[in-house]
Amino acid sequence: MIVLRVEGGIYFANADRIRSTVRSAVGREGAAAVVIDAETVPFVDVSAVRMLNELAEELEAWGVRLLLAGDVGQVRDVLRTAEARAELRHVYPTVQAAVDAARTGP
């Protein structure tokens, strides 16, 4: 299980860095799931939602789930309106809830 905390918005300018950080962590650790702790993420833009969708699809092919935890309302709203994958639209209220969900399956 890998938990990564993002400090700040997720948007076009840092989307590639977040993607490469997740890929690198999965490559080193060989985890079954990645939880992005979005508690301190004040916003997300549509290009970042696209990146998260692509990353979730890529990780799924490796047998790794991508879960989000600790959102604020705007993040949840953009994930919904930008048509994020179903698992990404289900933002867990806490990191522990996301970790528990990853352990028990979808």
Explain what the structure shows.
The chain is an alpha/beta fold and 106 residues long. The protein is 51% helix and 13% strand. The chain is built from five helices and three strands, in the order βαβαβααα. β1, α1 and β2 form a beta-alpha-beta unit. α1 runs parallel beside α2. The longest helix has 16 residues. The radius of gyration is 12 Å and the shape is globular. The model has no long low-confidence stretch (mean pLDDT 92).
User: Strand-residue fraction?
Assistant: 5-15%
Number of helices: 5
From the alpha carbons, calculate the radius of gyration and give it in angstroms.
12 Å
DSSP E strands, number: 3
Order of helices and strands: EHEHEHHH
Calculate the terminal CA-CA distance, rounded to whole Å: 15 Å
Residue windows where pLDDT falls under 50 for at least 5 positions:
none
Query: What structural class do you assign from the helix and strand content?
Result: alpha/beta
Mean pLDDT: 92
Shape: globular
Strand arrangement within the widest β-sheet reads 1-2-3
- Proportion of residues in helical segments: 40-55%
Sheet with the most strands?
A: 3 strands, parallel
SSE arrangement:
Blueprint: E1 2-5, H1 15-29, E2 33-37, H2 46-61, E3 65-69, H3 73-81, H4 86-89, H5 95-104
Parallel strand pairs: 1-2, 2-3
Helix pairs in contact: 1-2
List keywords for this structure.
106 residues; alpha/beta; 5 helices; 3 strands; 51% helix; globular
Short description:
The chain is of the alpha/beta class. It has five helices and three strands, in the order E-H-E-H-E-H-H-H.
